[in-house]
Design brief:
The structure holds 2 protein chains of 2 kinds. By secondary structure, chain A is of the alpha/beta class. Chain A has helices spanning about 15-40, 65-70, 85-90, 95-105, 135-150, 170-180, 210-215, 225-240, 275-280, 280-295, 300-320, and strands at about 80, 120, 125-130, 155-160, 185-190, 195, 195-200, 220, 250-255. Chain A has 11 helices and 9 strands. Chain B contains 12 helices and 12 strands. Chain B has helices spanning about 1-10, 35-40, 50-65, 80-90, 90-95, 125-130, 140-155, 210-225, 245-255, 270-280, 305-310, 315-325, and strands at about 15-20, 45, 65-75, 105-110, 135, 160-165, 195-200, 205-210, 230-235, 240, 255-265, 290-295. The chains are: A alpha/beta, B alpha/beta. The interface of A and B includes residues 111, 175 and 334 of A. Chain B: Its cofactor is thiamine diphosphate.
Chain lengths: ~325, ~325
């Protein structure tokens, strides 16, 4: 285990700028989704009604985990994400138009409208996600195994929530990845809740990076939802994986500004909690770092923000303008000839 | 089977095998015999007892273009990893709109008849056949095992490949003549979606699968010899997709249908075949369809109990004869 505060490797300002832009894009994407998801669901909330039906799990506040890792990845590296996947998808470079169209259930979507918000697959950038807790970890193990068998330096990252660390797949996968010395990184996003159950009521150990000892792998803990600390922990984990030195578990203390899903009454947490967390907004923190410590001009920051938002707006417009699939298309894509 | 896998591994470096005891042991039921000596442990990976992790890893590797063959030692163990099999292996290609391919084989041992009791004797054909997204095959002969395994490895879709323990020609099980045969040394393929008429007849169609096909042929020989009844026997071979055409054209010819299964009766393969006949060949039938399968109980341990629930040649003979006598 390493204490990252002890080391001060140079942090690339270009990479920090990239992270900031992705975080803004992700945040704005989710903010727009709050409104779009509400369309057709007022005054009576019906989960199956409106522009975007079904469950909607938003990642607002959790951006540092995604960008801190993905800033070190390329198209050849694999990312698997859970049911709350938008920030990971954006940071991994998933086609934003096709992703949004998929969430809208349109034929131009990543999965032609067959997957939806929890089931986004973009093989172009090796991204996938799924709706079953912890199930993406073994898929990342398989990607890491492929990298090793092909003699590549590709790494595989499995993002999970802290609740998933208590599922059997976590244990099986980490043991297997450690046994085979695979380039796997498991990023545990501790947003304090598994739906409504607080971490302290579900997890017998303080933080899941400590579980690294059980598999003989490296572990790192990132506190305060800090994008820079995440960047550093991830840089070390990715370097470790690329150089054949095996898996890492990184746990990051992060914040879920919204409910488990949109429409969650959130009776399980104090009303003052979220306003308090919003005071600690990681985007504002990184913005401050860029303008104050890195001397990035306000004009440049605003240009980045504008660019990010424009890309999101175009993606939503593309989704709105796209057609729904023909009903009969439901019968396609079971098997491939 | 091991020969089929070896042939494919020789010509395609993306093919590899992983599972429990598939290395030095050669697979508990011999499915991977000799592979580790030929290809080493880099491509023949013994795994921990972690079905979720290694079947999930096979899915992850397949998504990256590899052609993994994972072995689930007994089909009965599906409970510890069904999420990976069904929610992921079978659904990812569909949910991705066909953009993600999972060219993988999940092979697994099925079947009873050797007193291994309720947790190690099931076939569960229908459990997997019911759920879309997987090809589910269950070959009955050494020739088909090899040819269908090669087809399964080359197929771009996930294939659940069921092999029957009693038909593996294992030295430590009852020796069955039908389990041992010469097969061509070279590579050949057998389609994954075609049933096969294994005995021609004009009086009644018997649809069987794996052991039940062999028992149906035995019953048919007795019917011919003792009663002058000529039964046509169809080996289903593919549970999904099911080959309706072969079944329907046989019914057209014989006008009677008996379906025999080593799986449970209710909601099972026999029900599916009977429903196909009722929907598409009702007016060709001259008698009610008969279904013979495991009555709806778990597979019991004790020999007389197990022999009672798993259909055998004598039970098939009696049921067919009864059907013919009713007219």
């Amino acid at each position: 285990m390493t204490t990252f505060e002890e080391k001060q490797p140079a942090v690339s300002v270009e990479k920090l700028k990239w992270m900031y832009e992705q975080m803004v894009k992700s945040r704005y994407y989710e903010d727009q989704m709050v409104d779009v998801y509400t369309e057709g669901k007022v005054p009576v909330f019906n989960i199956g009604a409106g522009t975007v039906p079904g469950e909607m799990h938003l990642s607002t506040g959790q951006e540092p985990a995604a960008v801190g890792i993905c800033v070190h990845l390329t198209k050849e590296d694999t990312v698997t994400a859970p049911h709350r996947p938008h920030h990971h998808a954006i940071a991994k470079g998933v086609d934003l138009k096709k992703m949004t169209a998929e969430i809208f259930g349109k034929e131009t979507g990543l999965g032609k409208g067959k997957g939806g918000h929890m089931h986004l697959f973009d093989p172009e950038v090796k991204f996938s996600c799924g709706g079953i807790v912890a199930a993406g970890i073994p898929h990342a193990v398989g990607a890491a195994l492929t990298s090793k068998m092909k003699g590549k330096d590709w790494v595989a990252v499995a993002f999970i929530g802290e609740g998933a660390a208590n599922a059997g797949a976590f244990h099986e996968s980490l043991n297997l990845a450690a046994l085979w010395n695979l380039p796997l990184i498991v990023v545990v996003e501790d947003n304090s809740y598994g739906i409504s159950v607080a971490k302290k009521d579900s997890t017998a150990i303080e933080s899941n990076d400590l579980r690294a000892a059980a598999y003989g792998v490296a572990g790192a803990y990132v506190k305060d939802n800090d994008p820079i600390a995440m960047y550093k922990a991830a840089e070390e984990a990715v370097a470790r994986a690329r150089s054949g030195q095996g898996p890492t578990i990184i746990e990051i203390e992060t914040y879920r500004f919204l409910g488990h899903f949109q429409g969650d009454p959130e009776l399980y947490r104090d009303k003052a909690e979220v306003p308090g967390l919003r005071q600690l907004d990681p985007i504002l923190k990184l913005r401050k770092r860029l303008t104050e410590s890195e001397k990035v001009s306000e004009a440049e920051i605003e240009e980045m923000e504008k660019r990010a938002k424009q890309e999101v707006d175009e993606a939503y417009q593309f989704a709105r303008d796209s057609n729904y699939p023909e009903p009969e298309a439901a019968l396609n894509d079971v098997f491939q000839s | 089977m091991a020969e089929a896998i070896a042939l494919e591994m020789e010509q395609d470096p993306s093919v590899f095998v992983l599972g429990e005891d598939i290395g030095k042991y050669g697979g508990i039921f011999g499915s991977t015999q000799g592979l580790i000596d030929k290809f080493g442990q880099e491509r023949v990976l013994d795994t921990p007892i972690s079905e979720t992790a290694f079947i999930g890893a096979a899915i992850g590797a397949a998504a990256e273009g590899m052609r993994p063959i994972a072995e689930l030692m007994f089909v009965d163990f599906f409970g510890v990893c069904m999420d990976q099999i069904y929610n992921h292996m079978a659904k990812i290609p569909y949910m991705s709109g066909g953009n993600v391919r999972l060219p993988m084989v999940l092979m697994t041992a099925v079947g009873g008849g050797y007193n291994d009791a309720a947790q190690h004797s099931q076939t569960l054909y229908a459990t997997f056949g019911h759920m879309p997204g997987m090809k589910v095959v269950a070959p009955s002969t050494p020739y088909d095992l090899k040819g269908m395994m090669i087809s399964a490895i080359r197929d771009d879709n996930p294939v659940l490949f069921m092999f029957h323990k009693s038909l593996q020609g294992l030295g430590w099980m009852e020796q069955l003549d039908v389990a041992v045969d010469h097969v061509p040394e070279e590579s050949y393929t057998v389609p994954l979606d075609k049933a096969k008429v294994v005995r021609e007849g004009s009086d009644v169609t018997i649809v069987g699968i794996q052991m039940m096909t062999h028992y149906a042929v035995e019953a048919a020989e007795k019917l011919s010899k003792e009663d002058g009844i000529e039964a046509e026997v169809i080996d289903l071979r593919s549970v999904a997709p099911i080959d309706k055409k072969t079944i329907l054209s046989s019914i057209k010819k014989t006008r009677r249908l008996v379906v025999v299964d080593e799986d449970y009766l209710s909601y099972g393969m026999t029900a599916e075949v009977a429903a196909i006949a009722a929907e598409e060949a009702l007016y060709d039938l001259e008698a009610p369809v008969r279904r013979i399968a495991v009555p709806d109980v778990p597979i019991p341990y004790s020999r007389p109990l197990e022999d009672f629930v798993i259909p055998g040649p004598e039970k098939i003979y009696q049921q067919v004869k009864k059907l013919m006598d009713e007219e």
